[in-house]
Design goal:
The chain contains 8 helices and 7 strands; from the N terminus they run βαβαβαβαβαβααβα. A 7-stranded parallel beta sheet has the order 4-3-2-1-5-6-7, sandwiched between helices. Strand 5, helix 5 and strand 6 form a beta-alpha-beta unit. Helix 1 packs parallel to helix 2. The chain is globular and about 45 Å long.
Length: 177
C-alpha cells in the first residue's frame, strides 16, 4: 500500500510528535508499504522518511521546484518527483496514494489533507483519510467536523470517510478495513 503522509517540516514543541512520527515511519517500512511524502529533509518529514528507509521501506518524495531551490529536498529516496507548484505536488501525492494520513503540522498539512477529503467527497475514491491525533493534536478539528454534520453542512456519509486515530494500533485497524 502507498501511504501519503502529510506533516510538519518542523519538529513542534513536544517530543511525542517526533516519537509518533518515527513509529509510523518504522511501521510503514516494516510492513512493506511505501511512504509518499513531501520530500523534505527537515523536521518531522525527515524523521518519517529516515525511519521508513531504516526499516527497509520504500520512500517516494514529491517536492516543488520552490523548495528544491532552497535545498530542502532529501536525497537517497526510492523515487523523487519535482513539481512546478503546490497544486501539482498535491495532485501527484494523491495520485500515488492508496491512503492518506495527517500527522501534526501547520496550515500546509491541513490544506493537503482537507483537499484530499474534499475531492474524495466529490468523486469518491474510497481511500482511507486519517488524522493521527498525536497527544490529542486534532481533537478540536474532530469536534469541528462533528459540528459541520450537526449543522447540516457535512453529510454523515462524507463524515464517515474521515478517521481520527490516537495511536498506531487504531491506524493499523483502519487501514486493514
Amino acid at each position: 500500500m502507498n501511504i501519503a503522509v502529510y506533516l510538519g517540516s518542523t519538529f513542534g514543541k513536544k517530543k511525542i510528535y517526533a516519537d509518533a512520527t518515527e513509529e509510523l515511519g518504522t511501521w510503514i517500512g516494516k510492513n512493506h508499504h511505501t511512504l509518499v511524502y513531501g520530500g523534505s529533509k527537515t523536521g518531522l518529514m525527515n524523521i518519517l522518511s529516515d525511519a521508513c528507509l531504516k526499516a527497509g521501506g520504500k520512500v517516494i518524495g514529491v517536492e516543488t521546484t520552490f523548495f528544491q531551490a532552497e535545498g530542502k529536498g532529501k536525497e537517497n529516496l526510492t523515487e523523487f518527483f519535482v513539481t512546478t507548484d503546490m497544486k501539482s505536488r498535491k495532485e501527484k501525492m494523491r495520485s500515488l496514494a492508496d491512503a492518506s494520513i495527517a500527522l501534526p503540522g501547520a496550515a500546509g498539512t491541513l490544506d493537503e489533507i482537507a483537499e484530499t477529503f474534499c475531492l474524495d467527497t466529490l468523486a469518491p475514491k474510497h481511500k482511507p483519510i486519517i488524522f493521527y491525533s498525536v497527544d490529542h493534536y486534532y481533537d478540536f478539528l474532530e469536534k469541528q467536523f462533528d459540528v459541520m454534520e450537526e449543522e447540516g453542512f457535512l453529510t454523515p456519509k462524507n463524515h464517515s470517510l474521515l478517521c481520527f486515530c490516537h495511536n498506531l494500533k487504531e491506524i493499523e485497524e483502519r487501514l486493514a478495513k
